[in-house]
Structures are given as structure tokens and as C-alpha cells.
Specification:
Keywords: Heme, Iron, Metal-binding, Monooxygenase, Oxidoreductase. The protein is an alpha+beta fold and 455 residues long. The protein contains 16 helices and 15 strands. Helix 6 crosses helix 7, helix 7 packs antiparallel against helix 12 and helix 10 packs across helix 12. The protein binds protoporphyrin IX containing FE.
Length: 455
């Protein structure tokens, strides 16, 4: 069928429902199977009433996220379930998104990010001291979350948030981002039909709002009382940036950006940093290089941002971690108008699914793609690679605002722990991802941190 003079074809249908059922415990395997069958072509995942297009080839990623980006919006069946959490801010689309991006972008200038990272280093060192009990096995996801979540909360709200509020906020976020996993897998079920997780999701939002709104009002009151005061926390900066929009509407817009950013930053960072440990455990040779570099550069001192440029291997390790386990593993978009991607015609209103997880594992762009190898990111090795073969932080106008912050946070956490401890795990099989809205390892993965010199 020709569109705009270009000859197009229909997408091949890949039977997907049966594959999902077969891989019920590890649905990501169903996506991997579909991607391998597609071989980089645009295909349709046949789930009966719902048939999204699967986009894997870097050229097609570039088309959707950059070249024809305005045609692919963050709306539709995948985004709707999360709308009550994310609201109309930086994780929405169109006018409200553009306004939030204009307001938030200046918060992520190199200067402000560096100052946030310095505060972050101090908080991370304190939390490692407070939360780790050497010699006692702990659940890795929970242990890492106990460092990552309060760090972000303290950066966002400054010292003005109580420990009790942090303790309410952190589990509420956890519930909010995991409760919708079933709906995300079955997006064709109407919103009116109750699904597991819906009630827990509503309760979690109530808790989050119960903590966030009072902090916004306090920050507003402070800004009025002492207009000249320079607060570095994110909520004070947002209040200042939005001072023209007063009242409930203004509060809601700040709430939406804060909550969306909090969700975007904690779940992704905690997930990525949880993967680091089973990967170190599985690759003793790479772990030895990581340990050696940290010992040489950080030694016994508290880790600081000044150490980061001197730990290139750790940076390569983190890049490779995000290649094989990109926490934002699936990005859905809705096509506003009909389009052609890679010669395949797609209709207006259809859903396209992009996945860095799948693109990062394509044999056409990566040698032995399933092998964990930080050297892929050694200086000079990236030249010649397709620009969109690697995109853990998204691309185009919606590209992650927090990527530089995370690329400082990750080595701060890993080196902060490893300068003092060695991890001991008892894994009897390879660790495979489980499905949540981010790419989490299975729950219940434990490790013990043993003081250095005694492992
Ligand atoms: C491992 C860590 C992280 C990963 C893998 C990650 C990944 C992503 C991805 C894939 C997107 C694009 C979403 C889309 O196109 O629909 C995104 C957007 C975003 N991320 Fe991150 N992110 C991480 C950490 C952070 C951190 C630490 C922050 C904030 C401090 C943050 C804030 C944001 C925001 C605000 C957006 C929305 C940007 C927009 O739509 O304009 N992220 N992130």
C-alpha cells in the first residue's frame, strides 16, 4: 500500500499471547523471543484484541524518538493506569510536559547537578554507615533501596522532611510502581474492570500526596517569609520557578513534577544498583578490577565526587550494567497520525513499544550480546557503533533529565560500599529479570557484606 508516494508493507504478526503464557514467570523472555523472530524488522505483537508494534532497530528508535517524535506521544493504554500517580507534569506529554521540561531543565545544569552530587556523596556515606550491618545477610533490593530512596528524598526535600515521612514515602512509592505490573502486561483490560494491585495503588497515592503537599506548602510559606534565602533542595527551587501559579493549581503542578521525578529517579537507580551485586558475583575477574580501582583511588576515605573521574573502569562497568539491565526496559508511545517506520505502515492511534533492553541485545549491533563485558565501553570502542544501539536513558526531547546525576550516584554507592566491604552471595543459578514497571531482579536475592580483609 503506497503512503505519500512510498511503497509500504504490512507488519508481520508475531503470536504473543501464547508466548506470554508460556513465559508467565519471566515475561521479558516472551519479548526477547519476539525480538529475535523480528530480526530488527517492525512486527506486531498479537495479543488478541491488542496488537502493539514492537520497535527494536536503532534506525526505527531514532525515527520514533527523534525524527518524527511529535507524532509519538506518551498516551494510551500503557500510560493511563499510571496517570493518577504521575499527573500532568514532566512524565506527561504535550503542553503540560513542555512547560515542566522548561521549568525543570535549569535544575539539571552541570553546576547544579555537581552540587547535588556533592550533597549526595555525603548522604550516601551516612546511609551506608547507618543501614548496613556487616556479616548479616540482607535482601539486596531492600538494602539498596534503603540507601537510594532516602538519598533522593533528602535531595528533593532538603533537611525539612522527617524520618517518619521518609519511612512512609519510600514503601508507598515501591507499591505505586509495582502495583500496576499486571495492568501494564494486559493493557487492553478497561480501566473500569478491577485488577490486582488497583486498591494498593490508590492507597499508595494517598500516602504520597499526604507527605508531598504539606512539604510544598511549607516551602511556599518559607519563600514568602524569606524571599532572599537560597535553598538548594528541589522542592524549594520548584516553588520558586512556579511562583506565578498560586493556589491549588500551582501546588498540584509542583506535586506532579515532584512525584513524577521522584518515581523516575528512585525506582530506576535502585533497580540498576541492585543488579550490580549478582553481576559482580558472577564475574570474579571483573569484580577484581573494580575492587582494585576503588582501593587504589578511594582507599579508606569516604568516597567523594572528586574520586569519580579517576575510576574509569567502574564507569564502564555501570555503562555495561545499563546495557544488559536497563531499568526503563519498555517505553510505550501512541502514534497520533498514520506513519511509516522501516517501510511498514502503521495506523493512527496504534501503540508502539520501544525497548532499550531488546535493542541492547541485538546481535547485529553487539558482539556476543548476552555476555557482560565492560570493555565494550573502553575509550574508542564506541566509535562506529550506531548512535541508537545504546539508549538506556531514552533519546530526543524526552531524554532522561537525571542521567548525569545517576552516573555519579552509581559509582558513589558502589565504591562507598566496596571501600569497606566485600559482598558474599550464594547464587546457585543465573539471575533473570522479573517484571515490574522497571527491570527488577527477582525478589528475595540476598547477600552479606563482610568487612574487608576477612572475606
Ligand atoms: C538508572 C537510572 C535511570 C534510568 C535508566 C533512567 C531512564 C530514563 C528513560 C528511559 C527516560 C525516557 C522516558 C521516555 O522517553 O518516556 C527517562 C526520563 C526521565 N528521567 Fe530518568 N532514568 C534514570 C535516572 C533518573 C534520575 C536519577 C532522575 C532524576 C533525578 C531521572 C529523571 C527523569 C525525568 C524527569 C525524565 C522525564 C524527561 C522528559 O520526559 O522530559 N531519571 N529516564
Amino acid at each position: 500500500m503506497p503512503i505519500g508516494g512510498i511503497s509500504t508493507r504490512k507488519a508481520t504478526n508475531v503470536p504473543f499471547l501464547a508466548s506470554l503464557t508460556r513465559n508467565a514467570r519471566t515475561p521479558i523472555d516472551a519479548f526477547t523471543e519476539a525480538s529475535e523472530r523480528a530480526g530488527g524488522e517492525l512486527v506486531r505483537l498479537n495479543m488478541g484484541p491488542f496488537r502493539p508494534y514492537l520497535v527494536t532497530h536503532p534506525d526505527h528508535v531514532q525515527h520514533v524518538l527523534i525524527q518524527n517524535q511529535p507524532n509519538f506521544v506518551r498516551e494510551g493504554m500503557f500510560w493511563k493506569p499510571l496517570a493518577p500517580l504521575l499527573g500532568e507534569g514532566i512524565l506527561s506529554d504535550g503542553e503540560t510536559w513542555a512547560e515542566s521540561r522548561r521549568i525543570l531543565q535549569p535544575l539539571f545544569t552541570a553546576r547544579y547537578v555537581n552540587s547535588l552530587a556533592e550533597q549526595m556523596a555525603v548522604i550516601i556515606n551516612e546511609l551506608i554507615e547507618e543501614t548496613i550491618t556487616p556479616g548479616r545477610p540482607f535482601d539486596i533490593a531492600k538494602g539498596i533501596s534503603a540507601i537510594v530512596h532516602p538519598t533522593i528524598v533528602r535531595l528533593f526535600f532538603g533537611s525539612k522532611i522527617s524520618v517518619a515521612d521518609i519511612q512512609r514515602l519510600v514503601p508507598a512509592y515501591d507499591v505505586a510502581v509495582t502495583a500496576k505490573a499486571v495492568r501494564l502486561l494486559m493493557p487492553f483490560v478497561p480501566q473500569g474492570v478491577p485488577m490486582p494491585g488497583d486498591r494498593a495503588f490508590r492507597r499508595a497515592i494517598k500516602t504520597i500526596d499526604g507527605v508531598v503537599y504539606p512539604r510544598i506548602r511549607e516551602a511556599r510559606a518559607r519563600a514568602l517569609e524569606s524571599p532572599g534565602e537560597e535553598s538548594t533542595d528541589v522542592v524549594s527551587r520548584l516553588v520558586k520557578a512556579r511562583q506565578d501559579v498560586a493556589g491549588e493549581e500551582g501546588d498540584r503542578r509542583i506535586r506532579d513534577d515532584l512525584v513524577a521525578m521522584h518515581g523516575a529517579s528512585t525506582e530506576t537507580s535502585a533497580t540498576a544498583l541492585t543488579w550490580a551485586w549478582p553481576v559482580l558475583d558472577a564475574h570474579a575477574d571483573m569484580a577484581a578490577k573494580v575492587y582494585e580501582e576503588i582501593d587504589r583511588v578511594v582507599g579508606g576515605d569516604p568516597v567523594s565526587t572528586a574520586h569519580l573521574p579517576h575510576m574509569p573502569y567502574l564507569r564502564m562497568f555501570v555503562n555495561e550494567l545499563l546495557r544488559l539491565y536497563p531499568p526503563g526496559w519498555i517505553l510505550p508511545r501512541m502514534a497520533v497520525a498514520a506513519d511509516v517506520i522501516g517501510g511498514v505502515a502503521i495506523e493512527a492511534g496504534s501503540t508502539v513499544l520501544l525497548s532499550p533492553y531488546l535493542t541492547h541485545r541485538m546481535a547485529e549491533f553487539w558482539d556476543s550480546p548476552s555476555v557482560f563485558d565492560p570493555d565494550r565501553f573502553a575509550p574508542g570502542r564506541e566509535a562506529g557503533r550506531h548512535r541508537y544501539a545504546y539508549w538506556p536513558f531514552g533519546a530526543g526531547p524526552h531524554v532522561c533529565l537525571g542521567q548525569h546525576l545517576f552516573l555519579m550516584e552509581a559509582p558513589l554507592v558502589i565504591a562507598g560500599i566496596l571501600r569497606k566491604y566485600r559482598p558474599v552471595m550464594r547464587l546457585d543459578r543465573p539471575v533473570t529479570p522479573r517484571l515490574a514497571s522497571s527491570l527488577r531482579p527477582p525478589s528475595g536475592l540476598t547477600m552479606t557484606l563482610v568487612p574487608r580483609g576477612r572475606s
